Structures are given as C-alpha cells and as structure tokens.
Amino acid sequence: MMIHDITARVGRAKTRKRVGRGEASGLGGTSGRGHKGAKSRSGYSRRPSYEGGQKPFAQRFPKRGFSNAKFRREFHVVNLKLLEERFPSGAEVDAAALVAAGVIRDASLPVKVLGEGELTKKLKVVAARFSATAKSRIEAAGGSAVVADGSDSKKG
C-alpha cells in the first residue's frame, strides 16, 4: 500500500481545533490561552525579537570597526558562455541588447562581464567593467571590449 492510497481513503486535512465551544470539548473556558494577560487577549502580537524587556541580544555587544557595505557597487554579472549562446557573430552587445535577449532583467545596474566559458564569435561588447580573462578572451576571438562611460555608478 502506498501513501497516496491511504490519503485517498482518510482525506488530506486534519479537522481543525474548535476552541471556545463549551467545557465538555476540553477547549472551552480560556480556549487554551491560559488566564489573563496580554497573551490571552485577541489582537495580541509581539515583535519576533522581543526578549521580555531585557537588553536585546544585538545590543549586548560593543560595536567596533568600519564597514565598507555602504560603498559597495552592484552590477549585473554576465559570463562569456551566455554571450556565446545568445548572440550571433558580429553583434554589438550592450545593456539594452542583454535585456532584449533575456540575459539580465533590466538596465538599472551597470554590467560586468566575467570570463567563464569559451568565446568563438566576434562580438563588440560594451559594459561598465570586464574581468582580465573576459577581456583577453573577447579580443582573442576577434571582438572588442569597450568600457561604457558613466555607467559605473554607485547603487541606490
């Protein structure tokens, strides 16, 4: 006998717990909520990280150092193997062409080309950044790697 045979006979869902339907049900009176206090009232909810009034975990430790997170630059990352698959030889590949080909979602971020995969087609690739491997492989295939001016902007 398989599990789908059992569930077909028994049914999928458990019957829901009906609280507040008299003492004889075992879930009458306080309906499983205990006595008094905020947690027994309707509409009560507590912040997930609330720790009962004690000093929160994240605040118990000293904060030190410096983070470069604010200065991080975001890019749409594209590998050479995708360019090989999606574009014919002699094509010009820029952010608009990548969006049209469905490689990147939109042109809101600058594009960075990385060197994973082989490139056999001659392509003119316009992007904000190139890895050294990507640039050498594009040029080895007879194409050109052009750095787009002004699109190397910070996120946000």
Characterization of the model:
With 156 residues, this protein is an alpha/beta fold. The protein has four helices and six strands; from the N terminus they run αβαβαβββαβ. The strands form two sheets. A three-stranded parallel sheet has the order 1-3-5. It is elongated, with a radius of gyration of 30 Å. The model has no long low-confidence stretch (mean pLDDT 90).
Summarize the structure.
By secondary structure, the protein is an alpha/beta fold.
Give descriptors for this structure.
alpha/beta; 13% strand
> Approximately how much helix is present in the residues?
10-25%
Largest sheet strand order = 1-3-5
SSE sequence, one letter per element: HEHEHEEEHE
By DSSP (H or I, 4+ residues per run), the number of helices equals 4
- List how many beta strands DSSP finds: 6
What gyration radius follows from the Cα positions, in whole Å? 30 Å
* Helix-and-strand structural type: alpha/beta
Mean pLDDT: 90
Shape: elongated
Stretches where pLDDT is under 50 for at least 5 consecutive residues are none
Please outline the major beta sheet: 3 strands, parallel
Give the distance, in angstroms, between the N- and C-terminal Cα atoms: 58 Å
